[in-house]
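Retry 2 of 3 after timeout on previous attempt. Resubmitting structure tokens to design endpoint.
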């Protein structure tokens, strides 16, 4: 019974906050990481208004945030069917096809690659001023083999368009191209040029940190992370993503935990870094430090927001043994 009381005590603040957000629009719930509430609200909306393309797109993104590709894909597909000229809907459909391909075996992935390309190219055609669409298409061209439409020359063509739309993204794509060429020095120059183009934005510093992590240069990675989280927070998700790479690299668990607590305490939560993921990562950092009770609290908090989030379910099960 004492254990039940402890769990209830941890859940009470989240229950109270759920009630406070009961009338919040689904977009707000999704940005706050309240994915269970967002899904419930969006399912009601699509039931009442089956031609509401935006609700289907948001429902897809809610499942996307939890890594539930098979549940998200039909909703993204429905959004594009209802509004086939909306480039943003095609972009999200391409993204979720791509994530499923990454998580699938060879034959399933092979069947999805063409769909990813089709959707990203549609997103660019329908939203030619979208830097995100051009950037995602460039990433596809970089990663996909030539037989299914990939190619560095095609990625460079997208970078040339991004020179006008978003110079920092253009430098990022060229850095990725240089990495593919195994030209480390040129890649680092491009990532640093992106930092200069934005006058030191958080996201560009984080991209440099990712570069150092890929090359197992962990001291430089940590230094770049320090710059990222000290920069003007144009992309709040950088706090969560910076914490994650510190945890995955086995470095500075305390620093990672501090970043996650800072994010969770802020009013600037975003869909790109759902609160349930931040709680899960904080639990991971605490578990790595040997604080199992704290880890249980954070995994439980994650599941209070997203009860089907498999990573938190598995972590809670393992730490509770």
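Retry 2 succeeded. Sequence:
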């Amino acid at each position: 019974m004492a254990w039940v009381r402890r769990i209830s005590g941890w859940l009470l603040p989240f229950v109270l906050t759920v009630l406070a957000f009961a009338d919040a629009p689904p977009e707000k719930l999704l940005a706050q990481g309240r994915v269970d509430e967002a899904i419930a609200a969006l399912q009601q909306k699509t039931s009442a208004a089956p031609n509401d393309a935006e609700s289907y797109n948001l429902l897809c993104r809610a499942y996307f945030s939890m890594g539930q590709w098979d549940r998200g894909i039909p909703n993204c597909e429905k959004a594009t069917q209802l509004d086939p000229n909306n480039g943003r809907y095609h972009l999200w459909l391409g993204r979720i096809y791509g994530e499923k391909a990454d998580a699938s075996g060879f034959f399933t992935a092979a069947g999805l690659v063409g769909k990813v390309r089709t959707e990203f190219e549609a997103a660019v055609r329908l939203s030619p001023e979208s830097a995100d669409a051009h950037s995602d298409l460039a990433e596809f061209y970089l990663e996909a083999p030539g037989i299914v439409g990939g190619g560095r020359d095609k990625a460079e063509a997208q970078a040339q368009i991004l020179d006008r739309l978003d110079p920092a993204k253009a430098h990022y794509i060229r850095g990725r191209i240089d990495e593919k060429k195994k030209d480390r020095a040129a890649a680092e120059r491009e990532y640093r040029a992106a930092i200069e183009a934005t006058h030191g934005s958080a996201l560009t510093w984080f991209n440099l940190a990712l570069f150092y992590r890929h090359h197992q240069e962990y001291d430089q990675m940590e230094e770049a992370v320090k710059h990222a989280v000290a920069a003007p927070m144009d992309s709040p998700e950088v706090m969560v993503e910076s914490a994650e790479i510190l945890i995955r690299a086995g470095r500075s668990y305390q620093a990672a935990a501090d970043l996650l607590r800072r994010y969770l305490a802020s009013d600037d939560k975003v869909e790109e870094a759902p609160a349930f993921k931040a709680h899960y990562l904080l639990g991971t950092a605490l578990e790595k430090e040997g604080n199992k009770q704290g880890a249980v609290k954070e995994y439980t908090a994650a599941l209070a927001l997203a009860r089907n989030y498999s990573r938190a379910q598995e972590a809670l099960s393992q730490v509770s043994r």
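Attempt log closed. The mean pLDDT is 93.
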